[in-house]
Amino acid sequence: MRHLLPELNALLRTDMSILDEFLYDENTLQSIPSELHIGTDRPVFIRRNTEYTWLYSQPNRTVPYGRLPVPVVSASIELAEVIPLFATSPLLLIKNDQGEYEGYIAVSDVLHAMMHAHRLIEAYFETTLETAGSALTLINEEAKVAYWTTGAEHVFSISKKDIIGQPAANFFPPDRLQSLKTLYTGETVYRKQHQPRPDLFALINARPVQLDGHIVGAVAAEVDITTEIRLHQELLHMTSKVQHLEKAVARLRPELDPFARIKGSSPVIQQCLETIRKISTTSATVLILGESGTGKELFAKAIHDLRELQTAPFIAINCGAIPASLFESELFGYEKGAFSGADPKGKKGKIELAEGGTLFLDEIGEMPLELQVKLLRVLQEKSYFPVGGTRMKQADCRIIAATNQNLLNMIARNQFREDLYYRLNVINLVIPPLRIRKEDIYELTQTFLQEFSLLYNRHIELVPPEVFKLLFQYDWPGNVRELRNVIERLTILTTDGEVKPEYLPDTLTSLIVNEQSEVQTTSGILPQAKTEYQQHPKKSGDEQEPRTVVDADELEHSDPSDPVSHVTFQQKLDTYEAQLLVQYLKEAGGNKRTLAKQLGISRATLYNRMKRLGL
Fold this sequence. Notes:
Number of helices: 22
Largest sheet: 5 strands, antiparallel
Number of strands: 23
Helix content: 25-40%
Structural class: alpha/beta
Oligomer: single chain
């Protein structure tokens, strides 16, 4: 190609004379050039054995011609290798592989050829940059602008003559210049969103320019996306307005699909939804069991929406959030003058407010023991007395209770009434923790990202696979609530459109690093399981928990949704988990490595869980 350095043969000259020194004395040699009428364009070389000298003119000297040693090089050598030889002579003799002299090359011809190649490559370089269609900037090792395309002029409204040769930091805040960061750190970026100025958004590709292992500059290609960002922000704003309107409409017209807010398509969630459909055909009391953060109220609302009229009230009360002294009046209401400081008109209780609908008793395990007997009467007699009242009122509502505690253990410690437990536990619904339905993490993440990107006016362009990998590896002790909080954090910290792994909380990443240690959870008794006691550090008031060894054949045919009164909440969770592991292991052909990959956990964690469940 013409813009590359030429080969030696392309610069070869043959108009020369080679004389043997032993045939002439010095006086004769001095007269030879004039006798042969040889000028400066036709050099004379004197051969002495294997060495050569060039007979050059010395005007105004006593000796008219001087002699200068001339290097001899092979025609096959690269031009770049012979350039240092011109430091001793302006001419070089060239011989072929057979040792025959083909001619010579002159330093003036080499300089001319190099200059021509440089001009060609400069023309190619400039045309390529101007044809790229984006704002291209080149800065040198002194952080000065070495090249500035027409596209850059249009994007940044700065002319070439004003910026070329000037420090880039004179025109842009240094902390916003990705090209400077690339120059100083060697960082390469591709399609990264950034703001070179407060009023400008761009997508940038940046790469360092390296020569002989050293960074000598940086080149950046930027595409103006300010219009797109502003349109997107307007779209977010309008979408936010639409969502507010949708919420307002939803308050007037409840959602037709009662399961719309329950996200997930995993088998265990689908099984829960199927159980809810069966429950909704009855008015029976329901006990929802699930760890903290699993979304028990969402499932309670779904049961209510399925079996009640759209106008029926859904009244929720958190039994752990109300002081014991006020709990009775909150639940049953009070008559006027019932106690000092009471509303003179009296107040309706939650049971009366839920008339014709559903009363949801969240954290039922926190209900004061003295009030449990009164709630038992409501469940049995469907009637109650308000505080300070003498007239009995009817309780016309369906009861749904929920807890994250082991009520059977509380009964054993006289912290919960056994008769109330059996009244509440007509039908129970076990909500699976997030760690055994990790296939739902992707859908939940997308839902929360959409919610918080609108709330905080953030544009989330990309969630890289490595972030999702970390989300899948984590066991989520706080369940869906914890995942929601983590996604909110990621949304707040993401200002350039791309979620980065370092935005995840340290507690999450550190636990993943130490994942080899087994998560300590309690286990219970499964159908015909052999039980042995495993020593664990005791919490105050807790009894030693049994360790379960599960019979896989019996487990395969067991139904974890059957409400067996003597099986604890944790035992039901373990039943779910063990049954799923057996099912997925069969689908994986018994290959534990394949199963661990499908579940997004390490083999060590899988072995620990199977060992804990006795599989």
